[in-house]
């Protein structure tokens, strides 16, 4: 399930990058409720935000949010200053975002401060600094007496808690009305990234339609330029005249390859010259009476078998018969 969620968040942040120009590190405005929820569920601030936004982050805390956090803390009797809460990270981890809403630099309501940072100009309704809002549902404070036996204290604590709930919902609804504001919130120990709001979706669709129109217009311009060139060529036929065609050679791939003759060694050449007179003797160029030479066919050499030799030996007359014949005479 975590893999599916991370893939969904990656696509969502890619849409913010392509439509509204977001880039890493993402600037995240953190409110007081978000810090309390992160501390309550024992979550690491920066790693959790990086897993949710699928990129490097730079968390920021406004001066008005810091004032709201310190106002909710009990006062130290020794220094007459509020105690530093445990859920507030050091300035090295969570730097301060200076905001000046008036000449005296006095802090204002946290919700108004964050909405003014997200959208400085209400006419344009644009998140100029590409901020991401990180908020959460309010958490019961330590000094809240929701379970008190005193009815007055319990009603007072419930009224304060409901007021914080209303402010949290007002902050989220105001951030949704501004196009191009990603909202991260903590719900049941899970950090969630909200999908595109309706104004953001409208802007995204408008940007996509604008890209499509520019692409179609560019294609039409190319076609019109081609038609214009054709018309100019038809009006000026001289420019279309071509020179005579040049004779080209045959295709070398379709030609028959020449036979390669092996080079003869000097010994083979000498043998050929010696065998020529024998051929003339045996086979015969003869001079005619008219002085012309006529070629005689070569006589074939007959093969003698061994049987012929044995027959000739058997036909020889013995010497004894010759002697006896001579005496009788």
From TrEMBL:
Q: Does the keyword Nucleus apply?
A: yes
Locate the region Disordered. 144-173, 227-329
Q: What keywords are assigned to this protein?
A: Nucleus
Q: Which InterPro entries match?
A: Fcf1/UTP23, UTP23_sensor
Entry-linked Gene3D superfamilies: 5'-nuclease
Looking up Pfam families in the UniProt record yields: Fcf1 (PF04900), UTP23_sensor (PF24779)
Protein origin, superkingdom: Eukaryota
Here the segments flagged for biased composition (Basic residues) are 298-307
Q: Spans of biased composition, class Basic and acidic residues?
A: 144-169, 264-281
Protein's UniProt name = rRNA processing protein
Native organism is Talaromyces proteolyticus
The taxonomy runs:
Eukaryota, Fungi, Dikarya, Ascomycota, Pezizomycotina
């Amino acid at each position: 399930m975590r893999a599916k969620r991370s893939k969904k968040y990656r696509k969502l942040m890619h849409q913010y990058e392509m439509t509204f120009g977001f880039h890493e590190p993402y600037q995240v405005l953190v409110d007081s409720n978000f810090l309390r929820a992160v501390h309550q569920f024992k979550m690491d601030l920066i790693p959790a935000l990086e897993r949710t936004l699928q990129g490097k982050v730079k968390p920021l805390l406004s001066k008005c949010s810091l004032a709201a956090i310190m106002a909710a803390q009990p006062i130290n009797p020794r220094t007459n200053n509020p105690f530093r809460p445990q859920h507030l990270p050091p300035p090295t981890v969570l730097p301060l975002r200076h905001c000046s809403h008036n000449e005296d630099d006095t802090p204002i309501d946290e919700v108004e401060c964050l909405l003014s940072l997200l959208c400085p100009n209400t006419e344009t309704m644009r998140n100029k600094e590409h901020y991401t809002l990180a908020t959460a549902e309010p958490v019961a404070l330590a000094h809240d007496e929701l379970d008190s036996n005193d009815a007055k204290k319990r009603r007072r604590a419930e009224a304060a808690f409901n007021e914080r709930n209303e402010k949290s919902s007002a902050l989220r609804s105001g951030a949704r009305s501004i196009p191009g504001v990603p909202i991260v919130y903590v719900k049941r120990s899970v950090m969630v990234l909200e999908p595109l709001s309706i104004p953001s979706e409208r802007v995204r669709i408008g940007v996509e339609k604008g890209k499509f129109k520019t692409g179609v217009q560019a294609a039409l311009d190319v076609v019109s330029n081609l038609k214009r060139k054709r018309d100019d060529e038809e009006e000026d036929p001289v420019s279309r005249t071509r020179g005579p065609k040049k004779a080209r050679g045959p295709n070398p791939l379709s030609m028959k390859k020449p036979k390669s003759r092996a080079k003869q060694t000097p010994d083979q050449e000498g043998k050929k010259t010696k065998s020529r007179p024998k051929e003339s003797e045996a086979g015969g160029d003869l001079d005619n009476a008219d002085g012309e030479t006529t070629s005689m066919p070569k006589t074939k050499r007959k093969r003698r078998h061994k049987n012929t030799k044995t027959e000739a030996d058997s036909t020889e007359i013995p010497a004894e018969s010759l002697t006896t014949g001579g005496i009788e005479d």
